[in-house]
Design a protein that fits this description.
The chain is an alpha/beta fold. It contains nine helices and nine strands.
């Protein structure tokens, strides 16, 4: 099998690539906008786990990124059995204080490219009658929260889009799974190291390896969705009904701990 992993040069994407090579002996097409890091990761995984790895530099926030990536696979006879749409960005900022370039980047990366990747590679999988797609959403999909207004809206799109596709793809033998983790211990959210460590110790945040292990198990079982952590399951109903006064208080508090 071969897995296409986006955002594979660091963070959760790197953990997906490592776990697939180590635990499932899967060949890898690693896609990232960090060219040097991507080449190093591909070389290390190939040598360490004896799998074929292809590092590919791509800016997935471009309008035609998905089409170009799909065409690359066709031109090079690369059959993608597993698609992991992991690439993402995060910022904590009022909308009117955020540049249009950053807003557009997030919309393209989380919405347009994810939808196109599922459309293009999903069609190939449906024709073959087998395949796996894993999309990364977030618990923030249920939150109306200031500072992350674009992030949580795009994650809500990924969540509902993926669940809808599960019904379409399942009869054709293709699984699509969406993961909705809470905080994950990576540099994405911009927390200072001491607060990241505290969050993990309090089980507010989880190590990326733990998330990836659970996500891949659900993906290979072709489950519709997954959310790691009992605390997250308990907190989800509260997120949907958080009172305005509490949102305002936490908004001010969280802003203090951003880098």
């Amino acid at each position: 099998m071969l897995a296409l992993v986006t955002g594979a040069s660091s963070g959760i994407g790197l953990q997906y690539a490592t776990a697939l090579a180590r635990d499932y002996h899967t060949d890898l097409l690693l896609v990232s906008n960090q060219e040097q890091e991507q080449v190093a990761v591909a070389k290390q995984l190939a040598e360490q786990y004896n799998v074929k790895t292809i590092p590919l530099y791509r800016d997935l926030s471009k309008q035609d990124a998905a089409e170009e990536l799909h065409q690359y696979c066709l031109d090079n006879n690369i059959e993608v059995d597993i698609l992991i749409n992991n690439a993402g960005v995060f910022f904590f900022n009022p909308l009117v204080e955020t540049s249009m370039k950053r807003v557009e980047l997030m919309l393209m990366l989380h919405v347009v490219t994810v939808a196109k990747m599922c459309r293009l590679f999903g069609e190939d999988m449906c024709k073959r009658g087998n395949g796996y797609i894993l999309n990364m959403s977030s618990m923030s999909a249920w939150m109306a929260y200031p500072g992350i207004q674009t992030y949580n809206a795009t994650k809500a799109f990924i969540y509902n889009f993926s669940k809808s596709l599960w019904y379409e793809f399942r009869p054709k033998g293709v699984g699509i799974t969406v993961m909705t983790p809470g905080a994950v211990d990576t540099a994405l959210f911009g927390l200072a190291p001491k607060y990241r460590k505290l969050a993990v110790n309090l089980s507010v945040s989880i190590p990326p390896e733990k998330l990836v292990r659970k996500a891949l198990k659900r993906m290979f079982r072709k489950k519709k969705q997954g959310m790691p952590g009992l605390l997250n399951h308990l907190a989800t109903p509260l997120l949907k009904h958080t009172p305005d006064w509490l949102v305002n208080i936490t908004y001010k508090w969280v802003g203090q701990y951003q880098k």
